[in-house]
Structure formats: C-alpha cells, structure tokens
Specification:
This protein has three helices and two strands. With about 90 residues, it is mainly α. It has one domain. A two-stranded antiparallel sheet has the order 1-2.
Length: about 90
C-alpha cells in the first residue's frame, strides 16, 4: 500500500509539469498512464496484469495527452512580430 501511495504522489508531482507542445503532452500522458496502469495492475499481484495495465494506460494516456494539448496559432502584431494565440 505504501508503494502505491508513493507512486501516486510522484505521478501527481510530475503531472504538474504542464506544456503546450503536442509531442511533449503525448509522451507525458503515455508515461503517466503507463505508470498508473502498471501500479493498478500490480495491486492484483500478477505480473501479467501489471504489463496489461501499463500497455492500456500508456495508450490511453498518450491519446488523452495529445487530444488535450492546447492548439496555438501564430498571429502578427502591426510591426510584423509573431506571437502565439489560441486557435479559434
């Protein structure tokens, strides 16, 4: 039980490292999902459940991380300098 609590604390800490890059969000989501899935699967005591949990969690986390990444567009001010804005 202590291991699960420690893993959850680490995951919550890492989840605070937010980024707007889709590739970074995909990798972070996949990593967090895999770690969470493995921890949940390992709670049953079976190695196969831990592996399945890591695979399913990694896939789901990667998809959700990519889907929730903010989409940034580039706009230009009156002097021609580019800046990022939220896409409509």
């Amino acid at each position: 039980m202590k291991k699960i609590a420690l893993v959850c604390a680490v995951l919550l800490t890492v989840a605070g490292c937010n980024t707007n890059n889709k590739g970074d969000r995909t990798l972070a989501g996949a990593g967090l999902g895999a770690a969470t899935g493995a921890a949940i699967g390992a709670a049953g005591g079976d190695r196969n459940d831990a592996v399945r949990g890591a695979l399913i969690g990694g896939l789901a986390g990667g998809i959700l991380g990519r889907a929730t990444a903010p989409k940034n567009c580039t706009a230009y001010d009156r002097n021609g300098r580019p800046y990022a804005v939220a896409c409509p």
